[in-house]
Amino acid sequence: MKLHEYEAKELFSKYGVKIPPGRVATTPEEVRKIAEEIGGPVVLKAQVVVAGRGKAGGIKVAKTPEEAYELATKMFGMNIKGLVVKKIYVTKYVEVEREMYLSLIIDRATRRYLFLASPIGGVDIEEIAKTQPEKIKRVYVDPSVGLRDYHVRSIVLWLGFKPETPQWRQASSIVQAMYNIMVDYDAELVESNPLAVTREGDVIPLDARVIVDDNALYKHPELEKALEEDPRDVSEFEMYAKKIGFHYVELDGDVGIIGNGAGLTMATMDLVYHFGGRPANFLDIGGGASRDVVKEALKVLLRHPRVKVIFMNIFGGITRADEVAAGVEAALAEEGGTKKKIVVRMKGTNEELGRQMLAKLGIPLYENAEEAAQKAVELARA
Amino acid sequence: MTVLVGPNTKVVVQGITGREGSFHTQRMLEYGTKVVAGVTPGKGGTTVHGVPVYDTVEEAVRRHGANASVIFVPARFAANAVLEAVDAGVELVVVITEHIPVHETLRAVNYARSRGVTVIGPNCPGLVAPPVRTKLGIMPNNIYQTPGKIAVVSRSGTLTYEISYQLVRAGFGINIAIGVGGDPVVGLDLAEAALRVAQDPDVEGIVVIGEVGGDAEERLAKMYAEGAINKPMVAYVAGRTAPPGKRMGHAGAIVMLGSGDAKSKIEAFRAVGIPVAETPFEVPQLMARQLKR
Q1: Residues of chain A numbered 94-113 and touching chain B (CB < 8 Å)
Q2: What is the CATH number of domain B140-291?
Q3: What is the mean pLDDT of residues B116-129?
Q4: Could you give the ipTM of this predicted complex?
Q5: Of the options 3.40.640.10, 3.40.50.300, 3.40.50.720, 3.30.360.10, the CATH number for the domain spanning B11-120
Q6: Beta pairing, strands B68-71 & B11-14
Q7: Cα(B170)–Cα(B183) distance, rounded to whole angstroms?
Q8: A22-25, strands of its sheet edge to edge
Q9: Which one, of A368, A310, A214, lies nearest residue B249 by Cα?
Q10: CA of B148 to nearest chain A CA: how many angstroms apart?
Q11: The pTM is what?
Q12: What is the DSSP string of A124-155?
């Protein structure tokens, strides 16, 4: 779950980090009201969970509440990288002296927490890694040891602060807060970019990003609730898929893909691409899918406006071919048939039974996945 | 013998009375696996498919000499199940369970490693070794009937079955197939699994099945280039068409912070002389060429 900036900032604040005063608004009137309350120039920040909002026009400075109102009328409803702006975070404008980068992730290779720190900030870490890789410091923290004094010291020194100054202490407490948020909230990412030194000399997270592990959401009911009320970057199809129990990712082609297992489904997409086609989606029915899951999954693609051909690639083990065929039959019955072409390749458990069931529906079963993929691509072109 | 399991591997199934645990215990027994005990707290004293059930792993180990464990416990309790197995003294733990919070996996896996225990998974199909008729996992039995000299290490389940099937059809036999798991943090990662199987004198060739996310494939390529592995290898990487920032079914299959895309993995393999199959179906052909058959 990707937290909005205002939610992430609230977390930082909860952990004792000083943040610029601000509130989130859902209407231009509210934006004006908050701007009046804060007083002076304010920043309007579109709350969409993508990087690079600024360049896309999602961050604006307003000198007066009236200007804030005007800007907000344009910003609400704006489409930024596929996401519609429904919330605007209005915060006090602060003059910035210096920008840094600080993030915390889980390092897969060492199985430790990893801080990435750079005295240059405001741009993506990819950008820094490309242009000035020597500026990135990596500090690993073993989860069984936890964050220690010396970890914090090496990060804060690297960011350019002098020991035992007020700024040093502020920066240290931000490092500590980020670590605590990471652990307490089961986060995959805690980032402050830019982390800034203001004209007044305060160290503050000017922007904040937190991504919480979806598998741990049950431990944080308040976040679960927030996600339900505001699904952020999850499409309607993806929400539906999650409810039924399969994985769905939207892509932009016209060949609908259904597979079982993440790896095989990705390989099926790649196969379609290999033969010159374009996958419309990734849809993994998972292991041991029942006919109901197959039915609901297929219905999604039958109704999908962009999908011309549906290519199912099932390698049965726990998943049974007859169960899959029954799901196909039920989906077609509920939809009253379809004009879309369906290409099925199925191997494994109860294959023969599945073949007979599909034959009755006039759907031929392919033994060879390459042949089936070629056929699907050919039909999509026709 | 294989590197991870052999004739003396005695298995305890944690979560044996659940739907999955019970179903796959039967399949493991049918395959020939020595499943000696099961564990479900509160169900001690019962049996599942003739296998005695205990309340603790410690008891299963004490009474039956179990030295390996397969975990089918629900996600909320699975990390604890790993810790329990480690403390009970087993040497190998296979975690089938999906959706374990990654911070919990992190702690459990680190604890196990500090005690010298090998963890496969979580979110994995497990491992199967046809030469010793032993399976700790959920792979379909019928594909793993032909023992031989090819090791398959993979981040995916069904794709492992698919490629194993293609290998067997092409006349190869399997020494061991290990699905290391689709989560971002796993006990034994793809690179370590390849390194382990390479140490087996019975293994002639290694098939590596990678996917988007992380850098295990790149690390493996580096190990190969440095000579840590000196056996013929063939790779396949799933997810060439996966868009950045989206999880492709597996929690670990995500292109993030500018790294982990299929292209860089494929390039890393090719740069060190490991051929990469364009499709899963090309793997046997490439392996035959590697082994000069």
Answers
A1: 105-106, 108-109, 111
A2: 3.40.50.261
A3: 97
A4: 0.94
A5: 3.40.50.720
A6: parallel
A7: 31
A8: A22-25, A88-92, A42-46, A59-62
A9: A214
A10: 21
A11: 0.94
A12: -HHHHHHH-GGG-EEEEE-TTT---HHHHHHH
